[in-house]
């Protein structure tokens, strides 16, 4: 007996096997377009050369993001130039850092800072990470002990953030952030690292690790496209709102004293 295709899938569309992976920190790198397409929709400029590594600049050219898989160990480099209100900073994430976790940091680069003081440890505590007291450094470890986040300060005063994930076979990745990295970015990264939500990988892209748990799902190409487009649409809406506010914000009110000084200067 010949099976009939369910008509709700659309003409000629075939479901594809994917896997939901937990913990997300051990899911492998994933598709870098998850990061790059969002940034492009937010107005970032793609400086990449054909066939070369990814290279993107922020609209004001103060931040550069690169991904280079052609060198060892390869991975992500995010560099912020020194400005009037921010010291120079750098973040480096390994090639196997899941793009969903990388996006926790890079997406935050496109949003205005919150008025609340950032707390890197808060999203980890919410997910019951273990944070024992330390001397000169603080280390948070995930409940399954597969991922960590550490602030380390050496006796000479040099400080840095160090993070990553590793399984029993030694497979994994690390990330480093200079102490000057804006805290709201480190907090956004920590929230993405600790998120209990699984991430999805296609068949053939699932890491060989005894530490991960997988759930097989059937996904239509149109579903994947719709999910990706929803993320791009959200990025464009955010970019439009930011541009609209900057264009239409009211002018700064001039103080009476400044007006008087200006009047006197023109007499």
Q: Your description of this structure?
A:
The structure is a single chain. Helices cover 27% and strands 26% of the residues. The protein is of the alpha+beta class. It has one domain. A nine-stranded antiparallel β-sheet has the order 2-3-4-5-6-10-9-8-7, covered by helices on one side. A three-stranded antiparallel β-sheet has the order 11-1-12. The longest helix has 28 residues, at 221-248. Residues 1-9 and 252-267 have low confidence and may be disordered.
Condensed summary:
The chain is of the alpha+beta class and 267 residues long. Helices cover 27% and strands 26% of the residues.
Biggest beta sheet attributes: 9 strands, antiparallel
Order of helices and strands: EHEEEEEHHEEEEHEEHH
Mean pLDDT: 87
What would the principal axes of the Cα set say about the shape? globular
Number of strands: 12
> Strands of the biggest beta sheet: in what spatial order?
2-3-4-5-6-10-9-8-7
Number of helices: 6
Alpha-carbon Rg, integer? 23 Å
Structural class: alpha+beta
Uncertain residue ranges: 1-9, 252-267
State the helicity in percent bands. Answer: 25-40%
Work out the count of structural domains. Answer: 1
End-to-end separation in angstroms reads 98 Å
Name the beta content range: 25-35%
InterPro entries: DUF317_SPDY
Biased composition (Polar residues): 247-267
Protein name: DUF317 domain-containing protein
Region (Disordered): 241-267
